[in-house]
Amino acid sequence: MSEYYQFLRPIKKVAIIGGGPSGVPAARQLRDAGLDVTVFERQSEVGGVWNWRGTTAGPLAVPTPPPSSGAFTPTWGSDGETDDADRRKRNLFNPPNPCYWNLTNNVPTKTLAFKDFPYPPETLDCVPHWELAGYVHKYWEAFNLQSVTQLNTRVENAFKREDGLWELRLRKLEELTKDRVRETSRTETFDAVIVATGHYNAPLIPEIPGAAEWFKQWPEAILHSQGYRRPETYAGKTVLIVGAGTSGMNIARDLSDHADKILISARISSSAPAGYQAFRQAQRSRGTDKTVDLEEIREFRPPVPGRQVHDGEIEFADGRVVKGIDHIIFCTGYQYSYPFLSQYHRDPGAAATGQGLEPLVTCGDQVLNLYRDVFYIPDPTLTFIGISVNTSSFSFFEYQSISIARVFTDKARLPTQAQQRKALADVVAKKGKGKFRHFMGQDGEREYVRDTVEWINKDAEWSGAPKIEGHSAEWLHESDQIAVKIAAKYGVMPDGLADLGGNLTEAERAKQVEIVKNETNIEGPVECGVHLNGNSIAVAA
Fold this sequence. Notes:
With 541 residues, the chain is of the alpha/beta class. The chain folds into three domains: 13-53 and 70-201 and 335-463, 3-Layer(bba) Sandwich (FAD/NAD(P)-binding domain); 211-330, FAD/NAD(P)-binding domain (3-Layer(bba) Sandwich); 481-541, no CATH class. It has twelve helices and 19 strands. The protein has helices at 23-32, 88-93, 129-142, 211-217, 246-255, 274-284, 393-408, 417-431, 441-463, 473-480, 482-489, 506-520, and strands at residues 13-17, 36-40, 80-83, 149-150, 153-160, 166-175, 180-190, 192-195, 222-224, 238-242, 261-265, 291-294, 297-300, 314-316, 321-322, 327-330, 370-371, 375-376, 382-384. Helix 5 links the parallel strand 10 (238-242) and strand 11. Helix 1 runs parallel beside helix 7 and helix 7 (393-408) packs parallel to helix 9 (441-463). One of its GO terms (molecular function) is N,N-dimethylaniline monooxygenase activity.
């Protein structure tokens, strides 16, 4: 019996679903490895979540739909020209990204570089969204990936046929005029599929007593952070932000020069990794003179017919009741959702479907049955990029792309399914179930990349493939400065910056302070509540 996994057929033709910072480098790596690759991107250009559009859309429902339909509802076969004056068809086909006007990255830009495509030397540590989208687009053009990319094309369904091929049902939506569109459906077959849709496309609004009734009566007052665009919209208003993570606190700061008052309701999970909890606490400490911290919401009290949202009452966990709110923005994160892989979903309480296939997603907080967050263990012709969180995403995605290219071209071997399951069980035992199984952080990211390089290079010795390099000295240096550069981004001095054990030497702390002084031109000591314990921060809206 082989000690490695054996594919049933050679892999030659591969579909990549998504043309963002994960799908684009995957296309380059697989094509250069000799595979026939096609990227399907539903937007009109590559760039993923960093592509900004001024249009916005409210939640489909409150609470949001279950993961199997959380991102979109697949349709297929309704071809022809139709009117779309209100853009509803286009917005349902390609919902607005979670990208607001003042969004920037929140890890040093140079850690987001692909290995042989550096940013210009003068690039700042934090750049606006259009520069990051432009970087992905320039990479796409520089490596001539236009010919393998199909824009304005969405994968409605992907399933494995009895003959071992993946069949993709595809839908193309073309804008003919401002008011008219044309839809075209077709199918294509592939030997393997890479899902590179990221995890910021299916908003999550949890079930909170009374929230559905509020949304029914005042739908224009309720938004998910995915639909937030510009702070000027909220001038003079009282805004309740539900969630104090990256999006919640960044949007609160974005609103601070315009909104009259910003209320922040959140809780910090006690089951989260220590570094994650510390970062969340640090985020919440970065309030302004307009922010008010509140406990978790207990209920939205029943709305009175004919009244305005300003008259509605919300009760919090400590018994406090608040009214006078004009807008509610749920910054409550996203679900893992793959509606085009419906047979791999098991929504809570739903009957088993999918012909006995082992599920990928149940409640949406994690992706199941993956080896190294990439390979679907029962059938590794189905792979994923971008599942892991809290990484310097672009560069991390590139290493995952390389590993897929090597495996699909038989230049690197996967362990047996039993060994893959054992490796996954070890991860779950270490990190726990739920969303934190995908949590990397700075130390986890580096360990993952080291393991990837060691695996690829060990197999290169027998396959004859070229060896790859790990993180460069420059990348590691930039990554080492993540904590202090976050402090710099928010204009504070890190005199209070330390790991959770307080193990920084005076010389190390002095070096951090000097870095932030150079970055911010701040003079004198100012306390900063950033405590990261060596964990990097996810690049996310």
